[in-house]
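DM between two lab members

TW: hey, do you still have the AAA domain-containing protein entry open?
JB: yeah, one sec
JB: this one, 217 aa:
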Amino acid sequence: MRRGFEQTIEGWWQSQDPRPLLIRGARRTGKTYAAEEVGRRLAGDGFVKLDFQTDLDLIAPLFGGPTSDVDAIMSRVADYKRVRLSKETAFVLFDEVQLCEHALNSLRFFSGSGWRICGTGSQLGVATRRRHLPFPSGVRQETMHPMTFEEFLWAVGEEQMADAIRSHALSLEPYPAHQEALRPVSPLPGCRRHARRRGRVRRALAKRQSNLALLAA
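TW: and the structure you got?
JB:
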């Protein structure tokens, strides 16, 4: 499944930005999926994931020492994952990092260290209010939003349609396959939830088509 946000992660990796990347967003928006996809693709065997959601009791002790000693932290991470990690090739994912206060705080010390750390976090505002340690500075923060209609079209194999809709929206020209564009969003006719979603998408597309027609007149 392709997500547009993957380009943001790739850009961070390729630009050699010395700051850790912290991906914010609501739950179930695909933060972990996008980070894993890019991490495995770019770093290969150098990709490592720490899942604070499921393994908090096992992972939290890795950050039990001084959070400023990031090399010692990564040494413990390597021992825990039973892998060799190097600054040049590692892509380390701290998934749901807000669940471990010391891990979240450590991000500030990873900035400029040479280690490429990507964190994901849900409800970071709530976590911050309950914290005893300061929220990390020197971190690049990006927000990931739920799937767009364009990404939905990518997921169902309609890349050409997605490109065509975007092209016509930018050029303000009517889209001749407007009715055909409604078909990919109606795979489950017996489901009320999907029926409501189809209705919202249909109305949104109709409104856009009407606006484009008025602008083109």
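TW: got it. Residues 150 and 162 are 5 Å apart (CA to CA). Residues 149-216 form one domain.
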